[in-house]
Each structure stands twice: as structure tokens, then as C-alpha cells.
Write a structure and sequence with these properties.
Shape: globular
Number of helices: 10
Strand content: 5-15%
Distance between the termini: 39 Å
Largest sheet: 5 strands, parallel
Structural class: alpha/beta
Radius of gyration: 18 Å
Number of strands: 8
Strand order of the largest sheet: 1-5-4-2-3
Length: 281
């Protein structure tokens, strides 16, 4: 795997400098969780000037998958490449992704683009709110961009399948990154609940590296690295990104609980405790 050459999370001040020093190399992507939905994710507040809108549900996931592939299965590389070229991504682009919510949607974009082979991808720390709070202007129109020429593939990030996730869960090394309520309703037996939002400060920015490592229990150099899961590969991707920002490479179970629970052969645990591999609904 090629190591990234930009930080996983970039602050507002640093992004502003990037845009000032080399604007033609920077491609901003605003990630919408689902454009069919409205509310805080509809872009009505405006967006970073020059940002292209990307729909997580249809462009960062595929829609022709079986239930056992999960709610947000990875896109076909050819489809993703067509989308990325429409966004204007070139081989030399530095891509900065952000969202208008908690950063989870942006992290999904970061993970998918890194999986597809891009190394220069960063998440805007604190997202749209942090940019606006710093006094930077917002735009209202989506720009017209020249088609890009980026070539994308697959396999650039470590993944877990259901069997590998089960093995880690049996050792207490699978983290479920959803909120506590969703975890209680059903989870992979043995998975520990460590919500992704727990590493965010009150202003929505990422905590410091020691806080992030402590949150996921990776406090020493020889501590075992957990695998990450969630409901459909979004909150778990944020956890992977947060750990990557501290120098820890963790694998993601992309299908996560939505894929696991669609398989009638897989046991499901409920409640606030991890449970055991022998429990089922």
C-alpha cells in the first residue's frame, strides 16, 4: 500500500493555505449522505467555493448488491472512476473531502478513494462548520469543472470479510463504531461498542492523537490493532481514518452489521455488552 502524502485530517488554516498556494491542484468534494434526504445534509447553508457535490448512496456505494453485501457496498471501480472524472479528479489532484454533519460521510469518501488507489486525500477537520466558523466565505452554486483523467482501481485499503470479522470479535478485537442505541439493537457477537463521535471535540474537530488512541484502546506501540465495523461501512470508516491520523492502520469490515445480519447463518447479539459468538436473536 502506498502511504498517503497529505495528512488524513487537514485543518481549516492549512486548507486555506493550500487553496492560496496551489488552487489548481486542490479538488474539494462535499459529501452528502443521501441526496434524497433533506435537513442538515441538503447543502442549503452553502458550501466551500469550488466544491463538487458527491452522493454517498449512489456514487460511493453500489446499488446492485445482494443484502449480504451490506447497506453500503463498495462501488464498482469502473463506476467510481467515471464519477471521479466527472468530479474533475486528475492524477495529480489533492482531494479534500468534507460534509455538513459529523465527518462520517467525508470519512467514507476518504476511505473509498484511498481504497481505489488515491494517496493524496484529506478530510477537512470539522467540516463545513469549521470553515464557516473561521470566517471563510461559502458558495451557493456548484461549479462547472473540466473532466478529470484519474485512473482508479481497488484494494488500496485493508478489509475484513465476515469470517475475518468474526475471528477478531472472538478475540475482543472488533470495534462497532455506531452509536450505543444502534449497537444495543443488534451487533456482531463479541464486537465492542466504541462510537466514532467519541473522538470529536465540542466544535466537531478531531481530538488529539493520544485521545484518539486511548478511545480505541491502542495506547502502546505493541497494542493489538482492532478491526472496525458499524452498520454499513460509514462510521467504521471514520474510525479507520481517525486511527490512521495517529499512524495506526486498521482494517474495515465494509459490509458491517447490515451484511452480517442479512445472513441467517450468522448469530446476532443484543444489549449493551459484546456478548458471545454463541448468542443469537
Amino acid at each position: 500500500m502506498t502511504a498517503p502524502t497529505v495528512p488524513v485530517f487537514v485543518g481549516v488554516a492549512e486548507l486555506d493555505k493550500w487553496l492560496h498556494d496551489n488552487p489548481e491542484r486542490i479538488r474539494l468534494l462535499e459529501i452528502r449522505y443521501d441526496q434524497k434526504r433533506t435537513g442538515g445534509d441538503d447543502g442549503s447553508a452553502g458550501h466551500l467555493p469550488g466544491a463538487v457535490i458527491v452522493d454517498l448512496a449512489t456514487e460511493l456505494s453500489r446499488t446492485d448488491a445482494a443484502p449480504t453485501d451490506g447497506r453500503r457496498p463498495l462501488p464498482h471501480p469502473a463506476d467510481l472512476q467515471r464519477s471521479a472524472r466527472r468530479w474533475g479528479l486528475r492524477a495529480d489532484s489533492t482531494v479534500v473531502v468534507y460534509d455538513t454533519r459529523s465527518g462520517l460521510s467525508a470519512a467514507r469518501a476518504w476511505w473509498v478513494l484511498r481504497w481505489a488507489g488515491l494517496s493524496r486525500v484529506s478530510i477537512l477537520d470539522g467540516g463545513l462548520q469549521a470553515w464557516s466558523a473561521a470566517g471563510h466565505p461559502l458558495g451557493t452554486d456548484e461549479p462547472e469543472v473540466a473532466p478529470g483523467d484519474v485512473e482508479l482501481g481497488s484494494g488500496g485499503m485493508p478489509e475484513l470479510d465476515a469470517d475475518a470479522a468474526a475471528a477478531l470479535a472472538g478475540r475482543g478485537l472488533l470495534v462497532d463504531a455506531r452509536d450505543a442505541a444502534a449497537y444495543r439493537d443488534g451487533h456482531i457477537p463479541g464486537a465492542r461498542n466504541v462510537p466514532s463521535q467519541g473522538v470529536l471535540a465540542a466544535d466537531g474537530t478531531l481530538g488529539d492523537r493520544d485521545e484518539v488512541r486511548a478511545h480505541y484502546g491502542v495506547t502502546t506501540a505493541d497494542a493489538p490493532v482492532p478491526g472496525l465495523s458499524c452498520g454499513g461501512g460509514v462510521a467504521g470508516a471514520f474510525a479507520v481514518a481517525a486511527l490512521a491520523h495517529t499512524g495506526v492502520t486498521a482494517p474495515l469490515y465494509v459490509g458491517s452489521f447490515s451484511a452480517w445480519s442479512a445472513d441467517p447463518e450468522r448469530p446476532v447479539a443484543t444489549g449493551a455488552e459484546p456478548g458471545t459468538t454463541g448468542e443469537s436473536l
